[in-house]
Amino acid sequence: MIKKGTLTYHLLLALEKSIESGTPLLDFLASPRTFVWTGYRTNLNYSNLYKTVRQLRIKGYLETPREGRKILLKLTNKAKEELILKKLLEGKSWDGKWRIVIFDIPEKHRKVRNSLRSKLRDWQFEQWQKSVWVGKKDVSAEIKKFINYLNISQWVQVFVADKI
């Protein structure tokens, strides 16, 4: 999960505003405030920006196509999903309902099970038991979409409860 306030966070937010067109790297370096308010970061240097871009490329968040001599920065689908999730988790206050995810995924599907656990951590769920997770954020639709994407709906149940 990307930490709020970091250069990585601000760079991804800036790129989100220019999703289709991309942002020239040197334009962002010269004037980051035109893309996103960066708070305390007023002096960016090329070295820090380059390291951040490189890390984001390695993690699969950025593509860096060239247009002549310009290097553009473009978000990948993975980065778009991460930003949507970040906004979703930050933007909502607790509605008083608990989301409970219970699963029993067979051992031969261990990677899928671990992937589900990882996503539940990202969605700020707490583990009660090995296969019982509880969270306060309203991400039920995203959970169901993820479950259908992995084709594990026969092993996973999602509940919404007023009281536990």
Automatic annotation (TrEMBL):
One Pfam family from the record: PaaX_M
Task: List, alphabetically, the Gene3D superfamilies matched.
Answer: 3.30.70.2650, Winged helix-like DNA-binding domain superfamily/Winged helix DNA-binding domain
Which residues belong to any copy of the Transcriptional repressor PaaX-like central Cas2-like domain? 92-162
Coiled coil segments of this chain: none
Name its GO BP terms in alphabetical order. DNA-templated transcription
For this protein, the record's PANTHER family field holds: PHENYLACETIC ACID REGULATOR-RELATED TRANSCRIPTIONAL REPRESSOR, TRANSCRIPTIONAL REPRESSOR PAAX
Q: What is this protein called?
A: Transcriptional repressor PaaX-like central Cas2-like domain-containing protein
Query: Native species of this protein?
Result: Candidatus Curtissbacteria bacterium RIFCSPHIGHO2_02_FULL_40_17
Query: Which lineage?
Result: Bacteria, Candidatus Curtissiibacteriota
